[in-house]
Design brief:
Layout lengths: L2 H22 L15 H38 L4
C-alpha cells in the first residue's frame, strides 16, 4: 500500500470508530425548557427568552445601520480640510 492510501484508510477507520462510539454512548437530552417543569414562571421565562432572542438580531443590525448612517452624515457635513 502506498503511504497516501494507508493514511486515508487510517483516517476513515478512525472516523468510523469515533462515529460508532458516539452512537453507542449517546443519551437523550431534554432540550425544551418546559420538559422538566410546567410551572407558570418557567413558561413565562421561556416565552420572554424566546421573544428576546427573536428580536435581538434585528436590534443589533438596526443599531449598526443607525451608527453607520450617523457617521456618514457627520463625515458628509464636515468641511474639507
Amino acid at each position: 500500500m502506498t503511504a497516501i492510501f494507508q493514511h486515508a484508510l487510517t483516517r476513515i477507520l478512525r472516523s468510523g470508530l469515533i462515529l460508532v462510539l458516539a452512537i453507542a454512548f449517546v443519551t437523550p437530552a431534554s432540550a425544551c425548557s418546559v420538559c422538566f417543569s410546567a410551572k407558570e414562571e418557567t413558561l413565562a421565562a421561556f416565552h420572554f427568552t424566546t421573544a428576546f432572542l427573536t428580536v435581538l438580531p434585528f436590534l443589533m443590525i438596526g443599531s449598526a445601520v443607525l451608527l453607520l448612517r450617523r457617521r456618514m452624515k457627520m463625515l458628509a457635513n464636515r468641511p474639507p480640510s
